[in-house]
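Lab notebook, design round three. We kept the backbone fixed and only want residue identities now. Task for the bench partner: fill in a sequence for the structure below.
Input structure tokens:
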């Protein structure tokens, strides 16, 4: 940090508010880089994890998993065909009687071992997650990996108490579960899927997203290291075709899918004519509502956390900001100031706030939305001063004012660091504008008045409502949506329901 020279005594005036934008532009807040030093072992090529062993795919085909911050290939990953899915389902089916027949206490012991091993390997997992996905290391280190381990701890605790968790129900496992996850929280989504399934005595075949397979494959090694019975967890890597083969497979009893609404609808159609159970965690366009009596500095942090966390690649991102008209200018001003301190760049640097966009494809999608925002007449605020690296996929966080509810950027999920700012006059208007969306995943409400909080929260069409906070996740708290954001809950006692008959 460079030193600012002091003015002479005769020139001392009343203290002024620090102009953060000028401070950043003037280099006062330059930080020395603080790169993470752990170098995890990454194999050149990975097979599929079936029946407790890594085996080559039948086709022999592999695809590259890249670091989106450098465009370097990290490893080659097996491309599973429907015949490979068949092998994985058979391994899960073979393992089912013994795993389901194990006492809850003993299933819990294996799960505690997994959780502890994840904690022991936390830094390695965090680095892998950041290299493979592009998210800042401080997020993978402080959010993704601790929460993933916490999900295993939490569900290990339920394994021998299912009768108490689900009184009046028969807590028998569903059977073989096919689980398909996206790329935004690879290890966390894996734990949200695998932990409740194992606690309830099911066996699983899990498919990670094609751009982020590495932590799932590291997790497979953890299953080997802790001696999990073979076939209880199987990991098949591949793209949409592999997922489709799982959805269509007759040996799978339940599909748990997290991903886009478009794919979720297609899966719902396929599964409708079968006996499979189904849960869908889909997209969102969540509202973050700021009332004039809110603590504004706190709310600004909530806005930043709501939309720029994980580059905005968050299903429940607070991507529609509703601000009460009387404070709109102040909020825009404060937001501009705060955003001028955000650092975009090397995800492996502990100072980085916003990392790389996960893939070229996702960057192209975001850029299309940015162009549409301006074409439709909204005003873009590009206030983040960072210089972007030349290689890799990057998008500076920004926000739009002058947004109308009919604008594309106010209606469609962008899944990037782009915020649409809208206004409202009364609580009723805030509620009706927030609910004017085909999605119903999450919402945030910021106000000083407890009574208003609950009055507004209960009228919002959202699976999760955060009050004076945003993007807080906990294994004890059920997560899931309404409307086109899907159905079923993950986490808490509610999440166990999906994995019991
Ligand atoms: P996506 O739907 O393209 O892919 C998700 C997964 O499904 C990937 O593993 C992919 O390979 C697989 N897949 C693709 N086509 C398939 C098909 N026809 N049949 C079966 N599987 C198929 O979504 P994405 O781009 O990876 O993820 C982003 C989306 O996920 C966003 O819409 C986001 O909101 C949503 N998401 C939702 C939640 C939630 O909890 N509600 C959490 C995270 C992400």
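Proposed sequence:
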């Amino acid at each position: 940090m460079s030193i600012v020279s002091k003015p002479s005594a005769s020139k001392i005036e009343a203290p002024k508010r620090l102009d953060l934008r000028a401070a950043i532009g003037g280099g006062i807040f330059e930080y020395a880089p603080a790169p993470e030093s752990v170098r995890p072992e990454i194999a050149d090529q990975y097979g599929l994890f079936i029946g407790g062993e890594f085996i080559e795919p039948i086709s022999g085909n592999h695809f590259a998993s890249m670091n989106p911050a450098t465009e370097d290939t990290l490893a080659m990953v097996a491309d599973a065909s429907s015949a490979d899915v068949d092998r994985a389902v058979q391994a899960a089916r073979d393992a089912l009687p013994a795993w389901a027949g194990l006492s809850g206490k003993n299933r819990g012991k294996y799960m505690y071992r997994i959780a502890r091993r994840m904690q022991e390997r936390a830094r390695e997992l965090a680095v892998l997650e950041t290299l493979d996905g592009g998210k800042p290391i401080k997020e993978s280190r402080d959010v993704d990996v601790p929460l993933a381990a916490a999900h295993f701890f939490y569900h290990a605790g339920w394994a021998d108490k299912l009768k108490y968790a689900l009184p009046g129900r028969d807590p028998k496992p569903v059977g073989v579960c096919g689980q398909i996850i996206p790329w935004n929280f690879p290890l966390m989504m894996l734990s949200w899927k695998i932990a409740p399934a194992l606690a309830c005595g099911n066996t699983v075949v899990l498919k990670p997203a094609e751009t982020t397979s590495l932590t799932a494959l590291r997790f497979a090694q953890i299953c080997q290291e802790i001696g999990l019975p073979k076939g209880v967890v199987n990991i098949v890597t591949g793209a949409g075709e592999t997922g489709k083969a799982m959805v269509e497979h007759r040996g799978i009893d339940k599909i748990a899918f997290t991903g886009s609404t478009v794919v979720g609808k297609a899966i719902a159609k396929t599964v409708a004519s079968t006996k499979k159970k189904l849960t869908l965690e889909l997209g969102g366009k969540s509202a973050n509502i700021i009332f004039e009596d809110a603590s504004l500095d706190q709310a600004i942090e909530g806005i930043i956390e709501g939309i720029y966390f994980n580059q905005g690649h968050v299903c429940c991102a607070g991507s529609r900001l509703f601000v009460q008209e009387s404070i709109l200018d102040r909020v825009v001003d404060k937001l501009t100031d705060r955003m001028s301190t955000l650092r975009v760049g090397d995800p492996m640097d502990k100072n980085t706030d916003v990392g790389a966009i996960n893939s070229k494809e996702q960057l192209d999608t975001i850029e299309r939305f940015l162009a549409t925002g301006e074409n439709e007449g909204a005003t873009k605020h590009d206030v983040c001063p960072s210089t972007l690296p030349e290689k890799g996929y990057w998008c500076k966080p920004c926000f739009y004012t002058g947004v109308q509810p009919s604008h594309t950027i106010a209606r469609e999920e962008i899944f990037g660091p782009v915020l649409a700012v809208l206004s409202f006059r009364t609580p009723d208007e805030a509620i009706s504008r927030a609910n004017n969306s085909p999605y119903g995943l999450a919402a945030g409400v910021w106000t000083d008045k407890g009574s208003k909080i609950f009055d507004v929260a209960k009228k919002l069409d959202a699976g999760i409502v955060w009050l004076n906070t945003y993007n807080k996740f906990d294994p004890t708290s059920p997560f899931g949506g309404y409307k086109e954001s899907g159905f079923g809950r993950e986490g808490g006692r509610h999440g166990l329901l999906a994995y019991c008959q």
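Keep this in mind before ordering anything: The radius of gyration is 23 Å.
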